[in-house]
């Protein structure tokens, strides 16, 4: 966050610059954070020197970057700070070329959250804000200036709430000045540039100054929590009308517990949690508590945790986690507890993993899918939930902290189906269920929650289900695209529309998506089989250049090998079919073979946008006994694509000498320089390319 301050400065002239003297100055008591201004002999400003530059940037000792006042100051400040990590302060000059303030950058976790909340409130006019939650407040007084208070000013202005600027810095930096208003003090909110923590409304109605403020932004967190609760309850009501099984589960706040020990109190007061970015790793007692929570040292846990994070880098949406490939799904929607690394736990200790393993032991064929959204997030919850393809045997569970007192304060109803207060109060002495707060669960806490979810919700619903009947789609997932992605998709749809068979209306049109790395007799068998089963066939060749053979090579070889098929057209897949954007794990499958993928976006884009343009009604795939990632992709396609009226046809793979023909086998033989075996499993055009044109040094 960009902030401003006034600082006492010391002036030195260019001719007097001496490193030893500067060291003596900065090392003397009380001067290590001071700023030295450098001028030339004409008294013109040259730059500034700080202790950090003296230590680490002696080759560029004088910092010359400056800022000018104006509304673009925020963007310009970030550019300068990002250009040099040893810039701590930037001089700010006004229109008269007078030094008026210094600009500095501050990073605090809560301020990042508050920034996100303001963005959501600015974009979502329907979200409850001051007028709805604090109707008695008629004006807001702003003291001081920083990036957050400026954003809050814009938000208030957009929501037509009276704003009164109280200090000259707004006019000096931004040229903003307001008039005072005559409103009783008890109807005014005062906000200081460092924020307000809480609005305390006194019960004594006769007291005029009834709102008191602390110096942080927690009242905005309350507003975000309330909006999140409203959204979750709205989704639940909507889903229930659609016969979708949706539940709300709440975890108690620490202050609601009546059973806790001194160590839990200590961890709570000191925010001792692995998810705390400001964790004091130098404090012995803190590290002792972390070891108790993790069951291992902080260093050992961090190493294992980072290895797991690295393994998951090929997953497109880090906020979505899936375990299992079963058709029916239990969705867990919540904050950190619903993520793959929930509360910085190792994977085997997370709620999602433990729930999936528990269901497997019960003999239930269910996948578990977690959707992790910060507790302060509310704007996109509904949009993200709407991306889910939900069937009649699926169950959705919202899980987060209990906000009963907050709901009572604002008159909001939270329709909770399962409150885990009694469960958390039942834990035995010495059992560690959470780190600093009950929402930050350990393996022990997650195991208890899994049992409770199963006994109170999941088992009750499963007993009512008839698994002998085929699943019915209750909600088709809607793909969530950014404006930029939508523009690119529209361009791609326009391009492929030009390749459409003009007389295909009313006919059966099929498609195959292939990488062909390179094309083999196995691929050709699938293509010829499909071309005979439909009137027209489109072959999409994966355009992403992350395979052994380039896209140009693969595309050319497919065109040549299929030239004899009259009802076929070969099309580049673009960035929306099996691409690094829609399914990055596909391109890491050779060394991350066991990863569980989520292909719903890739399949959804195809079914909702691409298939209608080309009148595609059938999608063919080859059976995949060897490739775990592709097999998952096919199974998820079977689950989703039929909901859009598109047939799913799986074709048996072609074999040679009792072995499935695969492109990976060709690449292996190529490295062995075994062209006799290659010739048996690839079309002549592919063989000629590999034999005569391909540079075998690429195999090294």
UniProtKB/TrEMBL annotation:
<dbReference type="GO" id="GO:0005524">
    <property type="term" value="F:ATP binding"/>
</dbReference>
<keyword id="KW-0173">Coenzyme A biosynthesis</keyword>
<keyword id="KW-0067">ATP-binding</keyword>
<dbReference type="GO" id="GO:0004595">
    <property type="term" value="F:pantetheine-phosphate adenylyltransferase activity"/>
</dbReference>
<dbReference type="GO" id="GO:0015937">
    <property type="term" value="P:coenzyme A biosynthetic process"/>
</dbReference>
<protein>
    <recommendedName>
        <fullName>Phosphopantetheine adenylyltransferase</fullName>
        <ecNumber>2.7.7.3</ecNumber>
    </recommendedName>
</protein>
<keyword id="KW-0963">Cytoplasm</keyword>
<dbReference type="InterPro" id="IPR001980">
    <property type="entry name" value="PPAT"/>
</dbReference>
<dbReference type="InterPro" id="IPR014729">
    <property type="entry name" value="Rossmann-like_a/b/a_fold"/>
</dbReference>
<dbReference type="InterPro" id="IPR005216">
    <property type="entry name" value="Citrate_lyase_ligase"/>
</dbReference>
<keyword id="KW-0460">Magnesium</keyword>
<keyword id="KW-0547">Nucleotide-binding</keyword>
<dbReference type="Pfam" id="PF08218">
    <property type="entry name" value="Citrate_ly_lig"/>
</dbReference>
<dbReference type="GO" id="GO:0008771">
    <property type="term" value="F:[citrate (pro-3S)-lyase] ligase activity"/>
</dbReference>
<dbReference type="InterPro" id="IPR013166">
    <property type="entry name" value="Citrate_lyase_ligase_C"/>
</dbReference>
<dbReference type="InterPro" id="IPR004821">
    <property type="entry name" value="Cyt_trans-like"/>
</dbReference>
